[in-house]
Fold:
Amino acid sequence: AKEFPEDFLFGAAGAAYQIEGGWDEDDKGASYWDVFTHIPAKIYNNDTGDVACDSYNKYKEDVALLKELGLKSYRFSISWPRILPDGTPIKINQAGVDYYLNLLKELKAAGIEPIVTLYHWDLPQYLSDLGGWLNPQIADYFGDFARICYKLFGDYVKYWITMNEPSSTCVNGYEQGIHPPGVPLPGAGAYQCAYVQVLAHAKAWHIYDDEFRAQQNGKVGLNNVCNWLYPKSNSTEDLAAQDRAMEFTCGLYVNPVWNGNWPQVIIDRVNYTSQKQGYSFSRLPEFTPVEIDYINGTSDFFALNIYTSYLIENVAEEAFPTPSLDQDAAYNISGDPSWTQSDAAWLYSVPDGARKVINYVNEKYKPSEIIITENGWADLGQLADQGRISYLKDYLSNILDAILEDGINVTGYTTWSLLDNFEWTDGYLYKFGLVQVDFNSANRTRTIKDSARWYQNITSTRQLFD
Ligand SMILES: CCCCCCCCCCCCC/C=C/[C@@H](O)[C@@H](N)CO[C@@H]1O[C@H](CO)[C@H](O)[C@H](O)[C@H]1O
Structure:
């Protein structure tokens, strides 16, 4: 058997909008997800996060489950409009503050380390009306929110994650418009959003560094989903496309904070396609020298989400009829028929990819510490979830090889997710939980699945058997 290091932080994850419910309880303001899910036909089955797992009222049960499963960490997010109803510091909602303080105290009493995400996609609607992640001033609002959270909760928190998956927010929300605010802006929206999110992240990191680090002694990191992408063939074109694809999906969002700027290949590509389209400037916003200095080196650890892998094939250059990120990126993405597919079409089990992407991130960005902040399997919610057990076992085995054989400092793993929950545009169709939630019962009854018992055995022995 292979053994995880003694202090390895095994845990599980969740996010405010996906589990809390209480969407307008106790003076909480509306986020743009609250508004978006209330528009008919945006979400599978018109599902909403209005009640979700009702963790706003049942957080003690959640912590008891974590404890029963022997988990040592819990990644959760703070709902910005639950603390600041319109997103601004003009009003702090004491009921929201109490909720997170109570949760943190409950975790502390159970000996569970919180890993706290400041922003997991629930932007206050008022700030969305102000332009959302296209408006650079949102970075200032985010800085104020971060400062308030550090002040209120920082005594309990050693790991802060500023943003969850800028790639998802920016591509789904502002390039394609399938997430809120729901207006597609191809070829411009995702880049502008990435620019603002990077600045917002850096602001939150500097505020911690300047005002809180000395007393609170925690770490602040950026999260992104970086999946390993395989070339479809060994042709020079496909290998170059593979490299480009890693940058367009991962590097675009993380390279600025680790290396001070956009990946060079993206700067070159967007400049080139913009010129071809008659622009006198690149559609990719340029960081000024002052901004580069400000954003560079602003992550204390790498918070890495890994789900799957894809095949990448070069797209031969044609005309450039309309701007789009896909056209700038110039590759096709697909799955390999030999890979096991989950119930969600986008998610295959390709465990080798986990070790490869951990090595890629480690070599490229040289973080002193990596935490795998999401990794999980989609099914339809059955208690006998052998597919999830196989997936977790194979991914954990590769993560352990990265630690033991490649010598990489991966210090924790929070599987997605503790509870079945609201899966964004998929509503409650797919389930990722170790614990089943009965969304048809008013009580949102929780039932432990087979995968949770299997995971409990791994976390208590720290051993993984072949
Ligand atoms: C037969 C079809 C084959 C298709 C192959 C091509 C696939 C194209 C790639 C597109 C991928 C789109 C969906 C990707 C989603 C994830 O990266 C994203 N959902 C990860 O975000 C986290 O997801 C969790 C589980 O869904 C959870 O919701 C969490 O909040 C997110 O951070």
Notes: The pocket of LN5MNCGP is lined by residues 15, 18, 164-165, 168, 225, 307, 310, 333-335, 345-346, 374, 416, 423-424, 432 (CB under 6 Å). The chain has a mean pLDDT of 98.
